[in-house]
Amino acid sequence: LKEHTPAAVWFFAPRKHSDLVEWTQKVRAATGGKTKVWIQVGTVASAVEVTRTCSPDVLVVQGSDAGGHGLERGAGVVSLLPEVGDALKKHCAAQKLPALMAAGGIVEGRGVAASLVLGADGVVMGTRYLAAEEADIAKGYSDEVLRASDGGANTVRSKVYDSLRGTTDWPEGYNGRGIINQSYHDSISGMDLEKNKGLYAKALETGDAGWGVQGRLTTYAGTGVGLVTEMQSAKQITEEVREEAKRILGSFGSR
């Protein structure tokens, strides 16, 4: 870190809270405070504790609509973000408060505008950038992101995909949201785990054909996946989302 100082580090899913304190202190010591510390949380209580003990530059507030890994139990960002903001002002008023980034289910300008109204300083988008031309994922994965719709009904928070992929080292209380496919249906229908893992391994050998509703490979994505409908460059996505949010906020300001 002293030799190659990062602009920022992003911490998430510690085994215990003291890990965050240690990581933050060591990074700041190694970089002379040059590296910005981002910490992702999913509850009001953890937001307050992290702010008090780590003084992060940025607090990423992840709601339950987020794709990929997050808390098994939690609120959507629409209620979580303003409650976090209120709690920080109440319990951490004596210190500099972090910038708040909203995460979870935000894929276009309307979500960005709503997040800013709710008190966010910015947003984090993951699922939308799975359909970026620069995304280093398989075509089968990105095709499934473009195909999927009705994300609240067709994605699920579960540990099934971690079990099949062998990524089971997450702390207790975490799981991952992904698009429902045959692997998940077979799991909840009672298929033996080892048999399911074997079928998953065979699906890997088929390449892009392994994804899809009847496929078996994991497509981590948030509930906003149905709003992702085309491939674009990361630059195009960013500019489109930003301009849409500005138009919406501007229209409210003129009323």
TrEMBL record:
Keyword Lyase: no
Keyword annotations of the record: Flavoprotein, FMN, Oxidoreductase
Keyword flag Transmembrane: no
One Pfam family from the record: NMO
InterPro entries xrefs: Aldolase_TIM (IPR013785), NMO (IPR004136)
Record PANTHER family: 2-NITROPROPANE DIOXYGENASE (PTHR32332), 2-NITROPROPANE DIOXYGENASE FAMILY, PUTATIVE-RELATED (PTHR32332:SF34)
Protein name: Nitronate monooxygenase domain-containing protein
Organism: Cryomyces antarcticus
